Structure formats: structure tokens, C-alpha cells
Amino acid sequence: MEYSRVQLNDLSDEILMIILKKLSNVQVLYSLIGVNKRLNKIVYDSIFTNCLTLMVSFLNHCIFPLSEPILDRFCLQILPKIHNKIEWLDLEAFSMERILRATNYPNLYGFSLYNIQQEIAMHLFNDECPFTRTFKNQILSLAISINANEEQSSRKDINARIFMRIINTFSYLRFLNFCPSLNWCQELSFDNSFPFVFSSTLLKLYVCLHHFTDCLYLLDGRFNQLRILYVTINIISSSNLIINNQLKLPNLRSFSLYCHRKTGAYDELIVPLLHRMSDLEELDLCLIVSRKKIFIDGNDLKTNIINNMTLLNKFTFNIRSLSRFYNQINFPSNKDIRHTFDGFKDNQIISCIDYFQKRNYGQCHMYSYPYKLKYYDNITNNFPGGIFKCVRTISLFDERPFEHEFFLQISQSFPLIEKLTLINKKPQINKFNEQSKDDNRPSLIVIQYSHLFELNLIKTHEDYLEQFLLDTKMCLPNSIFLHINYQLLKEVTHNFTRNSTRNNCAKIRVIFLYNTLGFPEHLKDYFPHAKICSL
Q1: Fewer Cβ close by (within 10 Å): the C or N end of the chain?
Q2: Is the previous residue joined to 370 through a cis bond, with omega within 30 degrees of 0?
Q3: How far is CA 530 from the centre of its chain?
Q4: Domain of life, per the record (predicted)?
């Protein structure tokens, strides 16, 4: 430590700041506060004290409290020294109360609360709670992630009650991110019984809703100063409830609507809602739309959306429309769809057209590029390519076979994918299995998915098991979670004796075997590092 201190003191303040900015604020404060006067002066800078994340977050979205030694030092020594500099806190449920009681926070204007149980949230946002009495007139911004236990999961109104208490408790709240996860227990549902809630200060709202009627409820005038609304809706469908979907929203400037389920109510519900937002400047749509007639295309977006929003300067979208209107004779081409986007400004629009003869429907997928979502579903052989560094989860589906070159393209286009699901019952045409030394065919490029940890091959032809398990075609990373049909796996591995699939099978961490009541003992030798689960 003495040697390390000398080295740090030898560096200029500017160099030290560059280095320390690479670390988290908690690391900087825990390691350097109290070491000497010079370092104290640096780490007391607002860059390191304004915003503190007092929890541990992993890439798989799991959140844990700080270790006891670190938490002790912060609560007993560090937080009392910098309390007047702290403006934002990221907290988790286990250590939240202790941190908030460690000192007073006169300049705290916002915080995030993660993994809060519903009953704790109900108690927390209550006028009788010391937390509420302390911060009710101080907090301007709040993000909260709620968990539900099994007993509470059936109480559909509890999130609505928590939401209402937050709005009614914090008198000057301007920003609220209510349940940022897509987890079912974090949806907000008013369950056909809308509580009284009103705010003339709320400017920005992020929320996950159960039904489209919940969105109409939020936009019926009770948040009349709302400028920005980001909403994810589970179900967009007609309802017997009568809620005004005509009241104009002149103050709304930015709107984002995501729905991951198919909806047939685009023309009936979504378009009328967007017509209420004539003063929007930014719009983001992510939808799967089922239509009786033609696809949604550029002409549709111009007619129903853009022409009604004269102030719109940013429009991004990811829309997949499905239709049984077309057949192989009148089916539009990619070129036809691209022409409908002539005149669009400031966007690169990608479109992909597919017709599935066996299922008797067509789909048109169009999106703004660069692509910003973490998932990309139903990729077919018509995939237009590109680089998608944000995407972590993909699904592949087609009624035509996927060849080796397709999987190579997928690995290059999605360099950071973690989860892959493949659905294809068609056998490959170009089959390259084990090659002998006398084989004159050019050797295949061995494909790598370096970040993959979950692979689902349940609904596939056996050729795709070979595609992923043969070491002449694929090099899987370690610690894979594999979902697979037992009988197909048995055939592809030659009853778990095939050498060319052994290397990749040895990398499996957990294997879920479907359609089996048991398996032979020597299967464990073939998957030496795997936990084997029969389903």
C-alpha cells in the first residue's frame, strides 16, 4: 500500500481523474477516502459523490447488496462525510433502510429502488413511514422495481395502489420509472377499477402496463403536464370499457409504445391514440400487427402518423406486420416495400418480406437502422444483414432450410448474442458432416458464438443438432444451457458415442432433455460437466 500511495501521489490531478473515472464511484470512495488530504480533495469531487450505486448488479440482471465490510464502512464513515453532496442513490431492498438511516441527505433529489417486495413498497410509500415524511417534498425523480411473492401474485390491484401512493405522496415528482422490467409481476393494471390519482408536476413517465385501457386511463387528462411517456403494454385489444381516446395531448412531446404480443387493433386503437398526439417531436414504436388486408408500409406510416405530426423530427420503429391477404401471386417484393419509404428523412429503413406457404401467411418486418433493441425475432433466410451489437436474444424461423453459410452470417451480424432459439423442420440441402483426409471439398469455416449461454433446439430437424454440435461446424463456448429433444440427440450423437460431437457436448453446463422419461448412465460421461434435467 505504501508503494501504491507513492505512485498515485506522483501522478498529476488530471491523470488521476482520468484513471479514477474508469472505476465506479463506490470503488473510488471505498478505496481512497481518508488515505491523505490530496486524495480526499479529489474523491470529494461531485463526479464521485453526486450519484452512488450502493449495490452489486450483474449482467444477468441479478442484484445483490454490497458485502458487509463495504456496507459497514459506507454507513459508518463515508456517507456521513459526503451526505450533503449526494443527489442520487441506487439502492436494493436488503440494505436500503440501513443506508437511508445512516445520515441525512439534504440535497438528494432522486433514487432507484430495486427488488422491493410489494408489502414493503406499500409500507414505504405511506405518510406514517419516516422515509416518506423525510423525502415527500424533496424527491423529484424515482425509479422502482417491484417483486411479488406467490401469495400476492393474484392481487392484480396492488401495483396500481403502489403507483397511486407514489404519485400522491411525492408532491413535486417530475420523473417516474415504475417497474422497468418486463417481468409479469411488475405490470401495472388498474383491473377495470381506476383509482383517483392526479399530478400537475409529472413530466416524464416510464411504465409497463397490462392492457391498452390502462394506457388510455393514464392519458385521460390526470397527468396534464406530461411531456414524455415510455409505455410497454402486454395486451392491445378491444375492451368493453369506455375510455376517452379522442382528447388531444398538446403537451406530450415524446412517446414510445412497445408491445411484444401480436395485436389486431392497430387501426382501431393505436392509430386513433397517435392522432391525439399532433405535437409530438419524437416517436418510437415497436409492434407486431396482424391485419386482414395489406401490410403496414411506408405509405401507411405517412398517412396515419407522419402527416398528422407536423413537429415530428425523430421517428424510429420496429414493426412486424402479418397478413393472410396475400398469396404467392400478389405478394409484394422487398423493392415494393422500400419504395413506400421514399421521402423519409434522417433514417435508414430496413425491410424484409417473407411468405410462408405452409402456414399460409406473409410477414413484413421493417425497422429503423441502426437497430437498438436487445432482441431480434423470427429471422429467416431473407435476413438483410447488418451489424446488431445491442441484440442479446434472437430466434430463427423458416420453412426453408438454413445452411451453414446462414449461421456464419448470423454469428457475424450478432456478435454478442447470449440466447438463441431455432425453429426449422426442413433438412439442410448442403450437408457437410465429418470429412476424411482424402475429401477434396473445401473445409468449412468453424463458426463461433462467443457469448452464447442458452441454446434452444427443441423444434428443429436433426441436421441443426449436427450444425451446432459437430466440432467441424461449430465451436460452442463453455457453460451452455441446452434445450434439446432426447431422441434426436441420441441419433445425432450415435447413442452418445460419436467423437465429432463430444467436444461441444463437454461444454454443456445444463442440458434439458425433452420427450424422455429417463436416459442411460453413460450419457453422463458424454456430458461430463452438465447437470441433466429430464422434462
Answers
A1: N
A2: yes
A3: 28
A4: Eukaryota
Question: How many helical (H) and strand (E) elements, i.e. helices and strands, does the chain have?
Answer: 20, 23
**Cα 322–chain centre separation:** 23
Among candidates 287, 358, 290, which has minimal Cα distance to 323? 290
Rounded Cα distance between 9 and 39, Å, is: 8
Neighbouring CB atoms inside 10 A of 260's CB total: 13
Query: Could you tell me what percent of the chain has a pLDDT over 70?
Result: 92
List the domain boundaries for the chain: 6-108, 374-429+444-534
Instruction: Give per-residue pLDDT as tens, 458-471.
Output: 999 999 999 999 99
pLDDT at position 513: 95
Give the mean model confidence (pLDDT) for residues 221-239. Answer: 94
H helices present in 170-241, as ranges: 212-218
Class of residue 175 by CB neighbours under 10 A (exposed 0-12, middle 13-18, buried 19+): middle
The C-alpha atoms of residue 220 and residue 214 are separated, in whole angstroms, by 10
Given a contact cutoff of 8 angstroms between Cβ atoms, the answer to whether 67 and 75 are in contact is no
User: What's the pTM value of the predicted model, to 2 decimals?
Assistant: 0.89
Mean pLDDT over residues 195-221, rounded?
Answer: 91
